[in-house]
Amino acid sequence: MQQESIYNLIPKEYVPPPKEPMYRSAYPSNLVPTASTFNNHTTSRPKINNINGDYELVKGPHSHKGQSNSLGRPRGSYKPDTTMFRLKNTGTMGSNQLPEIQSYKYPPSIKPQVPKKDEKPIHGLKSNKNYIITNAVDNILSAPKQIVEDAAWTSKKDYGKVPDYLTKIKQSIASEYEIIRNMHISEAEEMDKQKYLLSQEEVQQLKEGLKKKWEAVNKEYQSITHIRMIDTVGLKRKKEQCEKELAQLEKDIEKLNKNYVFVDTQK
Prior knowledge:
Layout: H1 131-141, H2 151-154, H3 164-193, E1 195-197, H4 200-225, H5 233-255, E2 262-264
Helix pairs in contact: 4-5
């Protein structure tokens, strides 16, 4: 390990490492790869070849490499052959007479002819026509386009009618809605049957009973509140219980003050 030294604080000069020479293979670039199958098309030795990695393959009765058995055709093969051209009287279907040459007829020109140098253009022409209003009036007064209907479709019996499957789907949807509506109505009727209206005499009796109970609980609660120190757990619980009962009795009495009082038998 390097020991601490004051000389280590001095920056050292960077010396770049020497660049290695470019790698160049010692084997020729046009050598067939080892165990290659590129040259099996025109050879008498099938399967893979050049297993030993020799520079030159063993020569056989045929050339060891085809014309296009590589990753591309050899150089110069894409150039056109200068000897293959149309010779005289070779395109007349075996006849020595040349076909009659017909003169080409140009189609009639659609564009107007170019004006001559003596013709002068007409200047100063102006128009007060409002093309927007004219176009609107033409569209309003124009007759609607006639739609040509296909006779094969219009002659059918069910042309312009609602398909049967749509009618069936609508009927099934309507029946489902009717079933759901009847279920809601029956549920509402059952809920109404479970409730009944109290008479005024029954409401008055309940009020009197609740008031008597409230007075009894209040009397017990007042006896506890006059104690200076509530130092036992029993007295604390008794006081809390009385407060809860008084609050619940006041809510029940307030509900009975309504015009109509219903009783739910399911609760």
